[in-house]
Design a protein that fits this description.
The protein has 4 helices and 3 strands. The protein is of the alpha/beta class and 90 residues long. β1, α2 and β2 form a beta-alpha-beta unit. It starts with 7 loop residues before the first helix and ends in an 11-residue tail after the last strand. The relative contact order is 0.17.
Length: 90
Amino acid sequence: MPERRDSPKYVWEALDLLKVNRIDHGNRSLEDATLVQRLCNQRMPLTLCPLSNLKLRVVDDLHNHPLSKMLDLGLRVQSTPMIPRTSVDT
């Protein structure tokens, strides 16, 4: 099974190869403690979309969203209300 594009590996590559200045949708960064430490040390902002995560079933309930855990770990997190157009019910 191929590795998912939202895996911590891709966050590492974004940091090292692309020299990004923020990470969008970095929920799975929590799976790699070394990566979390680097994100904290670099004060790298992560942009999260809890409503989108709920709609796309990344989380089953907003109470289970990792936003508060990320803040507790010292990550710089910005929550946005964006919901992808492809997931909006019409």
